[in-house]
Structures are given as structure tokens and as C-alpha cells.
Amino acid sequence: MPDYKSVMISSKKPGNKKKRKKENAFLAILRGLIPWKGDSIGEIVRKIVFLVSIIALCVAVVIIIDKYLFEPVRVKEQSDKIIIELSNREPTADEIEELPEKAINTEYAPFYALNNDFVGWLAIKNINVNYPVVQGKDNTHYLETDFYGNYSQNGTIFADYENVFKNTGETSANTILYGHNLRTENFFAEITEYRRVNLDNSLEFLKQHPVIEFNTLYEKSKYKIFSVMLLNTREEYGEVFNYPAMIDFKSREEFNYFASECLDRSEFFTGVDMKYGDKFLTLSTCEFEVGLYDMRIVIVARKVREGESDEFTEEQIAAFRRNPDPKLCDTMRELYYYGEEWSGRYWDPAWIEGFKKDGSFITEDESLE
Predict the structure, then answer these.
(1) What is the pTM of this model?
(2) Strand, coil or helix: what is 284?
(3) Which residues in 277-298 are b (16+ Cβ under 10 Å) and which e?
(4) Of 186, 260, 339, 361, which one has the greatest count of Cβ atoms within 10 A?
């Protein structure tokens, strides 16, 4: 007959050994990390240095996480709070007195008083784009400076330093505004919805938000979007469309070139017509979705003319459509069109006054008839 007592005892031994092994392994790790009785002076010093390094690394990680994840959120909340407070109160007499000569939009006086670099206010209805706009002496200062003059990774929305805002209401032919695409979803983060990988969704977004409002101290204006572009800034990806250099047009040819290139490269067509002398508004931000460095999403809109409706009709919005073959850089054509060459224009030449069907421009000396 089996000795059940001895069997039961022997069956417990492996478990006890396993437990002791686990304890011994834990103690071995612990003794390897912290100073232990019997360690030599050199071993104690090594362990102390190692522990200090681990602590320093953890502190650095916490600081980095706070700086890049939580600080932008705190700055955004503080900035939004101040903007809301200033927007909701009446400007004081002293603030109005500080405005430049001929300024008529006195509701912006508190912002100008706070920062004399203030040049206007940008808003797109029903999305998180509703901010003051500044202009620095270059295009780098406000990349990491907030509206209040403090260092901030968020920066603020700023106009190209070469843009002109005269007290007569006159502006450059093409006003260019830059803003960061932030994970906090403020500034220009939401305009990336105009150009996502899912272009059908982006088309619907465009139909819901086709008009941009940009007011300066001297006038209030609305702009109708006619181009949504994905552009490269690196020559290694292919031809670079240097839109930041196109602020003023010296001739009809230059104007038509810019307008036609914007239509060629646009992901969508909205049917907005253009003629020499019209003013443009360009919004530019970084693009991260396609996986290439230094890509930009650029939105271009034409200023609503005097006497023209500042909205699209339902029929016009229903006619918005995708461009079957936008003009993209070589690298993007490899990704989206398997390297096939651009097949040409799909927009109506009549959208640009003075643009011929064969792709040439009517010159200054030629009749527009």
C-alpha cells in the first residue's frame, strides 16, 4: 500500500523550492542594485552612482513629459481664458485712444493695447479657429512666442512679415497667415480637416466651412475658399511651389499664374471665379499625416467683392467636387498615383478672367473680350 503521507510531503517540496528560488532571485536583484552588507567600497560607490543616474533619468522623463504634453495644454487654457475675457468686455477709452489712426474696429482695441503687433482677427464659423493675428519683424519670432510675448511652443497665428496692412484698408494682394498644427487642437490644427487622407470626409468638411473671416483694424472681410493644397517644401520631393514668395502681383500674368497653380494643385474645386485685382487669403500649417517631412496644408480663399454675397448658395455647395488629379510633388505621385505623370487640368478656364483654354494667359496688352 502506498505511503500517502510520504507522497503528500514529497509533493510539497517542489513548490517550496520554487518559492525559495523566487525569493532568492528577488534578493539577488535587490542586492545588485542597492548597497548591501559585505559590499566593497568600490561596489557601494558603483551602486550609488547607478541609483542616482536612474533617479535623474526619471526626473528628466517627467520634465520632458510635462513640457511637451501638459505645458502646451496649460498655456492653451490660459491663453483661451484671456482671449475670452478680452473679447467679452467693452474696450476702455484709453485703449481706443491707443489705436492707430483710422482704425474703425474698436472691439479689437484691448488686443492692440496688449500687443501692438496685433493686425487682425481670424475666424472660421463653427470650428476652433477664432484667434487674434499678429505680425512680427520676421517669420520666426512668433513660432515660439505667444500673443502676450511669452515663450511658448504653441506660438501664435501670425501674418507674413512682408504683408502690408494700411490704415486705408489696403492689404497685400495675398495675405499669408501661418499657424501651428497642435495636438491641443488649437490654432491651425483644425484646418487640417480640409485635407485628410480620406478626401471624401474632407470634401464634406469643406462644404460645411467654405468661408473664412479675416478682419483687420481697418476693415472686415470674408473670403471664399477655392483651393486646398498639400505642398512639399523640400526639393528632394520634387518641384516646390513657392507660395510664400507670392504676396504681390506685378502683372495680370503673375496673378493668373498664382491662381492657376492653386487650382491645379487643389484637391477640390468650389467654382469660385477670380480676376486681376482680387485679394487672396492664404492659411498655411504643417501636415503630419502622410509621413513626409516639412509638408504643408495650404488653404487659399478669394476675398468677397463689394456687392457680392459672402456665402455660397446651396446649389454652389452641392457642386463642390474633388479634383480627379491634383498636381502633386514627385514623391506624393509615387505614393498616390504610382508614379504616373500629372494628367492636366480639370477646372474651368472661365474661373480665371484672362485665362485662355490652351493654358496661356492674356497679356496686359491684349483685350479681355
Answers:
(1) 0.79
(2) strand
(3) ebbbbbbbbbbeeeebeebbbb
(4) 186
Q: Could you report the per-residue pLDDT of 224-255, keeping only the tens digit for each?
A: 999 999 999 999 999 999 999 999 999 999 99
CB 89 within 8 A of CB 106: no
Query: Do 206 and 228 touch, CB atoms closer than 8 A?
Result: yes
- For residue 63, give Cα distances in angstroms to 7, 57, 60, 134, 151: 58, 10, 5, 30, 17
Continuous H helices in the chain: 4-33, 41-65, 71-87, 93-98, 109-114, 199-208, 252-265, 314-318, 330-337
Which one-letter amino acid corresponds to residue 17? K
Which residue carries 468638411 as its cell?
205
Helices 4-33 and 41-65 sit at what angle, rounded to 10 degrees?
A: 80
Residue 254 is placed in which grid cell? 503673375
Any alpha helices (H) in 286-344, and if so which ranges? 314-318, 330-337
Q: Distances in Å between the alpha carbon of 75 and those of 47, 66, 150?
A: 40, 12, 10
Which is nearest to 233 in space by CA: 287, 158, 173, 306?
287
Displacement of CA 287 from its chain's centroid (Å) = 7
pLDDT, tens only, 195-204: 999 999 999 9
CB contact at 8 A, 47 and 35:
yes
- The three-point CA angle 93-98-103 to 5° equals 95
* C-alpha–C-alpha distance, residues 255 and 173, integer Å: 9
Q: How far is CA 238 from CA 14, 293, 331, in A?
A: 69, 13, 7
At residue 32, the pLDDT reads 67
**φ/ψ of residue 191, rounded to 5:** -75, -10
In sequence order, the β-bridge partners of residue 298 are 229, 284
Q: Round to whole Å and give the CA distance between 58 and 264.
A: 51
**CA-only gyration radius of the chain, Å:** 31
- Amino acid letter, 176: I
d(CA 12, CA 119): 82
- DSSP codes of every residue in 206-256: HHH--EEEEEESS-EEEEEEEEEEEEE--GGGS----GGG-S--SSHHHHH
